[in-house]
Amino acid sequence: MELPTKMSATKILAKVKELQKQYPNAVYSRVKDYCSYTSGRVKNGPKTHGCIIGQAIRELYPENFASLKMYERDADSSIGIDDILPESKTCSILATIQDNQDYETHWGEC
Fold first, then answer.
1. Residues 16, 94: contact at Cβ < 8 Å?
2. pTM, whole model, 2 decimals?
3. Which helix (H) or strand (E) holds 27?
């Protein structure tokens, strides 16, 4: 997937860690059968919608968040972190966090 701005996995991970500290009891509820960067409710977390990775992208790369929102609305499947970031150790860490929070693990424990 082509996004307007090149994203840094390291910056996204740092923002995710901030969100984990800020909202340790937050729990993400998936949309239908999949995680969404741009939708899905968060209990005990930010007032905006979307998974922890989506929340980080929203804050760091708002133009990419808008692109993801349009894509998710039109696509039949979800987008994995490896679809939007180059493969790396940091990307693997983000994928693990994303997988954990998809199963309603508190953000502070992901």
1. yes
2. 0.88
3. strand 27-28
Query: By the 8 A CB rule, do 23 and 63 touch?
Result: no
- Phi and psi at 87, nearest 5°, equal -65, 135
Q: Which stretches of the chain are DSSP H helices?
A: 9-22, 52-60, 62-74, 81-84, 89-102
The two three-digit tokens of residue 36, written as one number: 């969404």
Q: Which amino acid is at 72?
A: E
pLDDT tens per residue, range 18-57: 999 999 999 998 877 777 888 888 999 998 888 899 999 9
Q: Which of 13, 28, 32 is nearest to 75 (CA)?
A: 32
